[in-house]
Amino acid sequence: MSTGHGPTHSIDFDHPPTDPVSLFEQWFAEAQRLPTPNPNAMTLATVDADGAPSARIVLLRGFSIEGARFFTNRHSRKGRALAANTRAALLFHWDLLDRQIRIEGRVSVASDTESDEYFAHRPVDSRVNAWASDQSEPVASRAELERRAAEMTARFENVDVPRPPHWGGYRVSLDRIEFWQGDKYRLHDRIVFTRSEGGLYEVVRLCP
Ligand SMILES: Cc1cc2nc3c(=O)[nH]c(=O)nc-3n(C[C@H](O)[C@H](O)[C@H](O)COP(=O)(O)O)c2cc1C
């Protein structure tokens, strides 16, 4: 496939589709064919109770009109920020396609059933380590981390590892979603879909 430079392999930004979900799916499918290990990696930006922003990578694990889903430890730094302020932003950058997608919305907590289902499909060591790691908390050493992992491995030996109650999914709603396609000499293409009260999207082209 092409590297995507130039408008040829992109959408017609002057006549964009009306549905940002199918457009996302199209771009994401193209990203998944890239020779890159985590095309579903996205930056998640949160704002804490003091108004301080922070950002980190998480993996996209599901996308629909309901939003973009990821999984994490709800006691983590990001989890605490999201409990205080549900507004969040996501960012994908696929350099080989010269594309960027920005999503802004509010997080909702995925249901226990959904989180259980996803957790059950993880490799057993990942499930054990979800118990072993107090994500974002200090830990004295690598040895201490491994001691905790071994302790949890022993605890769950011959047991179907249950989901920790503090581990689960979040979904960022698609209130604003922008598609960016790089082009020559910085004359890039941008369109932004903004959701109105009725749930319909207004589509606007932006200057690069
Ligand atoms: C490629 C990549 C994928 C990651 N995926 C996740 C993920 O899906 N969920 C997660 O909690 N952390 C993931 N992380 C780790 C986070 O970036 C971060 O270090 C961790 O969640 C703690 O962040 P916090 O202290 O801001 O809560 C990933 C890191 C990288 C580099």
In short:
The chain has 208 residues and is α+β, with helices and mostly antiparallel strands. The chain is built from five helices and ten strands.
Topology, pairings included?
Layout lengths: L19 H13 L8 E7 L5 E7 L3 E2 L2 E7 L3 H8 L2 E8 L4 E11 L2 H9 L3 H9 L9 H14 L11 E6 L3 E6 L7 E7 L5 E6 L2
Antiparallel strand pairs: 1-2, 1-5, 3-4, 4-7, 5-6, 6-7, 6-8, 8-9, 9-10
Helix pairs in contact: 4-5
Bound molecules: flavin mononucleotide.
The site of flavin mononucleotide (FMN) has 16 residues, from strand 2, strand 4 and helix 2.
Number of strands: 10
Overall domain count = 1
Q: In CATH, what is the homologous superfamily?
A: Electron Transport, Fmn-binding Protein, Chain A
Strand content: 25-35%
Largest sheet: 10 strands, antiparallel
Please tell me how large the radius of gyration is: 19 Å
**Uncertain runs with pLDDT below 50, 5 residues or more?**
1-8
CATH class: Mainly Beta
- Helical content (DSSP H or I, runs of 4+): 25-40%
End-to-end distance: 25 Å
Instruction: Count every helix, treating DSSP H or I runs of 4 or more residues as helices.
Output: 5
Structure report:
- Helix content is 25%, strand content 32%.
- With 208 residues, it is an alpha+beta fold.
- Strands 1, 2, 3, 4, 5, 6, 7, 8, 9 and 10 form a 10-stranded antiparallel sheet that branches.
- α4 packs across α5.
- The protein is elongated, with a radius of gyration of 19 Å.
- Mean pLDDT is 95; it is low at 1-8.
- The protein binds flavin mononucleotide (FMN).
- Flavin mononucleotide is lined by residues 38, 41, 54, 56-59, 70-73, 76-78, 135-136.
